[in-house]
Amino acid sequence: MKRYTIILGFLLVACSCDQPRTNFDQGIVPLEVVNFTEINSRYDDYNSAGPMMFSEDHFTLVFSSKRNRLGADFDLVSYHCLADLNNETGHFGFYTDPQGWPLLDSINTTANEYGPYIAIELTDYWLNGGAEGEEKTFYYASDETGDLDILFWNYKLENGLEIMDSGRVNGLNSPYDEGYLCHYNGASSMGETVYFTSDRDGDFDIFMATGDSAKITTSVNFDIIKLDILSGPFDDKCPYIVNDLLVFTSDREGGYGGFDLWYSSWNGSAWSAPVNFGEQINSEYNEYRPIIVPSSEGPLLNDILIFSSDRPGGAGGYDLYYTGMKRPKDYF
Amino acid sequence: MRPGFHICTLTICSLLLFFNAVPVNGQDTNPQSSISFSAGYSMPYGTFAEKSFSRMAGFSSGGPVMDFRYQHFYGSKRIFGLYADASFTTHFFSERSYLASYEEVMNVEGAFQVKTGNYLFAVTRLGILVAFPEFSGTRIILDAGLGGAFCYHPKLSVYNTYWGQINTVSEDVSGQLMSAAGVTIEHSLNRYTAILVSWSAYGFTPSFYDEIGPYQLSFDLPVRYMNFNLGISRYF
């Protein structure tokens, strides 16, 4: 009898939770810059990578941080980010949780690890529609050998993490610094095409490379082109492309001081001249490594832009920040 | 002459005749039963009156109400009794406040357009009456009752010229058990006719189904309002 009373009591409490009327069909990320306080530490936190699709309300964010060894060097750390959407009040925020990822334990060294990028192997993705067990590639850059090189890990998530192989993307690396690789096939009809940063021509510029095999990681020879329209006599770094929109950081003229965030759109045949994101996002301090979390087809009305900055008011050093992006068509 | 004028004139004349007619029996004892008609203003309160994006906000700005009641007292002193009541209320949805809430929360480019209708509530209830003894032809009657409410939620649509469609909620109707309590002050004009001023408070929480929203969820709307009425009673 007592048990039934407890169950009845529980049901009465459960039934008393009223469901409010929604005032927002989708969440809206505010167009102001917000410090990602949920994940920042008093050490430098920057160089993030997010998902290529954000169809649910959560995603994994990987970024470089000095927190692991108390400021000694940059390691890659991972956080599970759950969007805090209130469809009644319009409030937007994040719940976050540190995510132990065995792959990162294998990657992190006493050198600096930068510029992570989570890529789904495009051929597998197109054939299988992103089925479970697909092979994925994780790219990053490390200065373990003195200069910055691009490395990769091929892995599969099936009954746990299965690492297929790993190594350097030899055809892209040089005695100079290379890093911040990202995929984009809009400018090429054959094989995988990647964009990356290198200072092989004196200052940091943005390059496009297409390998001679179906996969970048198995290619030996590359067709590497410097993108002149995105590369000036200043430092142009950290290209990141989502839905035909390339975002990058540059200390070129026309900014608001230090490194600023810029964007360029692909019109089907060429990249447009870079446009500054404006003072709503950029400041007199450095803004660095922008990434787009494409969410406007999912639970949100607009995409999220995540970047790092050393502007004052943060938790310490470089911090990660996020802001809502405008409508996609405003960038084209 | 317009047909509506005839109907209106006939209705008013009928009501005047009814409320001024003197029954041919029951002259020796106080009449025990009455029917009344009253109308007035229905004022929302609680979260139903909230006009910002706070939890369960109803954005109601009140509206007109009309009420019909039958009541019967027991005993010659007419202290205890029962009543049956039906009221019809419209609550205007405050489009202006709703729009201002979006402007405050989003602070973005573009203009908002809100399209919606009004809430409608038809309530019937049964309950008990307790009356204070009459003085100077005036008496105070307390009532409390339970009943059912038929509720209508209007279709709601919010569009922003920059972002596009922001919100859609479908229209729906819902039945709900409800409770109410009130006070009526009656002043006798003669043995059978009295004018009244009444206050009553209603509370119920209907559930509506949002058929066109992206999540197609049911939602609850805590409805709380108070009616302030003026009217007339006829005892028999």
Distance between the termini of chain B: 36 Å
CATH architecture of chain A: 5 Propeller
The gross shape of chain B turns out to be: elongated
| Low-pLDDT segments of chain B | 1-5, 15-26
Radius of gyration based on Cα positions of chain B: 22 Å
Strand proportion of chain A? 35-45%
CATH fold annotation of chain B = Porin
Largest sheet of chain A: 4 strands, antiparallel
Question: What share of the residues of chain B does DSSP label as strand, in percent?
Answer: over 45%
The CATH topology annotation of chain A reads as: Tachylectin-2, Chain A
Q: Report the strand count of chain B.
A: 13
Please tell me what the overall shape of chain A is.
Answer: globular
| DSSP summary: helix tally of chain A | 3
Mean pLDDT value of chain A: 84
* Assembly state (oligomeric): heterodimer
SSE order and pairing:
The complex is a heterodimer of chains A (332) and B (236).
Chain A: H1 2-15, E1 34-35, E2 45-49, E3 58-65, E4 75-85, E5 92-98, H2 102-107, E6 113-120, H3 122-128, E7 135-142, E8 149-157, E9 161-168, E10 178-183, E11 193-198, E12 205-211, E13 222-226, E14 236-242, E15 245-250, E16 260-265, E17 275-276, E18 287-293, E19 304-309, E20 319-324
Chain B: H1 3-20, E1 33-44, E2 63-74, E3 80-92, H2 95-106, E4 112-116, E5 118-131, E6 138-153, E7 156-160, E8 164-169, E9 172-188, E10 193-204, E11 207-209, E12 218-220, E13 223-235
Antiparallel strand pairs in B: 1-2, 1-13, 2-3, 3-5, 4-7, 5-6, 6-9, 7-8, 9-10, 10-13, 11-12
